[in-house]
Amino acid sequence: MQEPVSQEFTLRPPTIDDAAAIWQLVRDSGVLDENSAYAYLLLCRDFARTSLVAESESQVAGFVTAYRPPLRPQVLFVWQIGVSPSARRQGLGVRLLLELVSRSRKDGPAIDFVEATVAASNVASSRLFDALAKTLAVPLTKVEGFTEAHFPPGGHEAEPLIRIGPLPGL
Description:
7-stranded mixed β-sheet, Aminopeptidase, single chain, 4 helices, alpha+beta
């Protein structure tokens, strides 16, 4: 396997102009749940303060979409994170998460936990969240999140809830 070429990335909040590229990254991943293109427009517009894109050579090379649950504003819930094949194996996923946590902790109530749901078959995401917990030197716990029965018929696997934290103070 050929090693990826090291790239420079600019991390910034998404705009609606990024939505189509994010949708395409999700679609091409073969692992992430594909939402409607409209959903990505809303995420880029309404959740830009809790989301980031990684840009390289004017192209979206990665993204993370997240939000603060209204009844639990101390949590940053990561909806999706994806990195293009050409940008993988460069630490971009962890970098996106660390930057998002840092920015989000400065914007509003303190964030004490990062949460996400990850299917067992999504090994890359599981490893990414393990790496985040190790980098932050905090516990990672898994509890029931969404079971197969919560999803419409069609064989969607369960997605346990991953909880990282409590995060150290700033």
